[in-house]
Amino acid sequence: MWPRTGPVVTYGLLYLIGIVLHFVLSWRIAKRHKLRRRVWLTVRVCYLLAMLVGAKLLYDARHHQLDLWALWQAERWLSSGLWGGLLAYFALAVPAVILLTPRRPAGLDLVALTVPMPWMAAKLGCFLNGCCHGRPCSLPWAVTFPPAARTAPPGVPLHPTQLYEVGLMLLVLLVFSRLKSARWEGTKLLWFLLLYGTGRAATDFLRGDTEGPLYLGLLSLTQLLSLAAAAGALLLLVAHAHKGDRCAELPHEP
After folding, report:
1. How would DSSP label each residue in 91-120?
2. What is the 3-state secondary structure (H, E, C) of 4-63?
3. What are the structural domain ranges in the chain?
4. CA 31, chain centre distance (Å)
5. Which residues, 6+ apart, have CB-to-CB distance to 63 below 8 Å?
6. Mean predicted confidence (pLDDT) in 7-19
7. What gap in Å lies between CA 121 and CA 124, rounded to an integer?
8. What is the pLDDT of residues 123-165, one digit of tens each?
9. Exposed e or buried b for every residue in 125-134, given b needs 16+ CB within 10 A?
10. pLDDT tens digits for range 61-73
């Protein structure tokens, strides 16, 4: 693929572009929803911390390599990976917007709406770098990676799981575009968790990079977390829909 753009690692460049995209989107979406400056500034900082520090800490903890002092060493950042950035982002941003604004539905929508495009940039970086690759397959859209790819076996046709996630984000954006009525305000985060959680759990069955031990004999930690988030989001969406139906059935005063 294209692991380097001149002297710059392409993955790092696209990862940075994703962070910048999030900054721009958070400002524009917050402005459209008339959220105060402190809200979108906080969401920006949460994403930055999550995608860099949070993803590094979670990766190291998951691989039993957690060493806070090592985070001050450039070699540590270049030699190991990132994992759980979105998990860290939601863990930081959701409580933050709940505390910072009384307009919590709009704040929660902001958290969700700013994710798909930056995540697509990050996954395109994974694709060009050769990380997060898929299992061998003989499908017409299988991809092969050169020897310069980071972890993908060179010359072997593989599932383009990175592009599957890009397609998943396009689906999320399509669903978001249909949720314009006031009834669905504040539910976009739930829709994101439902769609991405289900999709990520499915695409991980096609992943070829080793992710660590499996749980329950079949699922990985990522799949368990994704399915738990999707199940919780589905329950809350059903409750929200029933609440909306009950409100619509109440008689209106003349």
Report:
1. HHHHHHHHHH-S-HHHHHHHHHHTSHHHHH
2. EECCEEHHHHHHHHHHHHHHHHHHHHHHHCCCCHHHHHHHHHHHHHHHHHHHHHHHHHHC
3. 4-180
4. 23
5. 80, 212
6. 88
7. 5
8. 999 999 888 899 999 999 999 998 877 788 999 999 999 999 9
9. bbbbbbbbbb
10. 877 776 766 666 6
Amino acid at 104: R
**Amino acid type, 28:** R
DSSP class per residue in 146-177: -TTSSSSPBT--B--HHHHHHHHHHHHHHHHH
Amino acid at 211: E
CA 248 to CA 254: how far, in whole Å?
A: 15
CA-nearest of 71, 74, 42 to 57 is 71
Tell me the one-letter amino acid at 133.
Answer: H
Q: Which of 113, 126, 122 is nearest to 43 (CA)?
A: 113
At 254, list the tokens. Answer: 């003349």
Please report the pLDDT score of residue 254 as a whole number: 45
Cα(88)–Cα(246) distance, rounded to whole angstroms? 35
Give the model's pLDDT for residue 252: 46
* Token digits of residue 198: 């289900």
